[in-house]
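Re: the request from the purification team.
They wanted to know what the chain is likely to look like in 3D before they choose a buffer screen. I agreed to run a prediction and write the result into the notebook, where they can find it.
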Amino acid sequence: MDMPPLAERMRPRNLSEWVGQESLIHPKSFLSLALEQKRIPSMIFWGPPGCGKTTLAGIIAETTQSTFHSISAIHSGVKEIREIIEIAKKPSLFKNGTDILFIDEIHRFNKSQQDSLLEAVERGWIILLGATTENPSFEVIPALLSRCQVLVLKPLSGENLTSLLEKAIRTDSVLKQKNIQLKESDHLVTLSGGDARRLLNLLEMLILSSDQNDIKITNDWVDSLLARNPLSYDKSGEGHYDTISAFIKSVRGSDPNASLYWMARMIASGENPLFIARRMLVLASEDIGNANPMALVLANSCFQAVHALGMPEARIILGQTAVYLANSAKSNSTYLAIDSALDFVRKEAEHPVPLALRNAPTSLMKDLDYGLGYIYPHNFPDHFEKQEYFPDPLSGQQFYKPAQNKEENEAFIRIQSRWGEKYPEREDH
């Protein structure tokens, strides 16, 4: 019989063998108390690959002495679900506890497939344990999500992973037959990306690559044998949205170095450069606006240049624009202004356009006083003359409140000099 891989041989059988996820398994945690009482609710385990979701499901089933059914959403469908539910519904002298249905990658089930679980979960025929790498708020239907507890599992820390390496070398039936010295572990840990399964697979690859019994694991040896770990980034998943969010927040927060880091993460992962350029185009108006009107011009030029050039040259233009936007003065006053105006228009009764502001292309319209009383600003000094542009009931309504920066300070002075007390307010931020 073939020897199972190291990751399987090292799989914890109970919580005492568990490494990491301390917040979930401490004695007073929800999970520990539920296991102690053997009253397990349906749960969704959300976390990155290799953090222990499948292992946790197995431990729960073993601890509660439940009948364990395991399927993968990639290979299974409604037919398999219904067959398991029918088995779970039938009483049996040979069953211990309840029936647990574990669905790996549950986010890959469509709505109808998830719907097929609702009655069984609601009636308690099965305890559902689902594992997902994607945010369940987006990938699990609300009706099912409301019937489940969500447990968030995190990537294992460097300390957890090093401890796991040491334990494998010390206790595994195969590895302990060799004289393995873990001289350096940080490169191996880095390559694992917080994934325990990948870490143990990499360790096993290292050991199998050597025909010696005396093995010293060093960073140089790891680098010479193992390829660089590809970045974990799903262009259609949550990592995509989390990373662009981190990038936008870094630019908005005026940190050019963090902005370049998150941009580099996206570029190295194969993100569409036009997506990055498009987001900077929005940011230039939303977060910089009239504090620096040139930001929008540069962002638009960036978008056009990236479209014309493509990668890899586009990375230079993307980087230049990101640094410029991060270093620019910031203001969201016009972003707030248009949203304020839209909100006002949706809630306020519709007022007719004042006659003075209406166009009068026909004699009938002129006879009806369309355009009567309109003052043409270009006929006056500084191309301005005070007149009312709002319907009378709305006179003095203010949406735009200039923020505190050089450009908008000048705009505020202009507004006050022209309109006096009609528009006195501003945002001091």
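For the purification team: Strands lie at 43-46, 67-72, 99-104, 127-132, 149-152, 179-182, 214-217.
Please add any questions underneath this entry.
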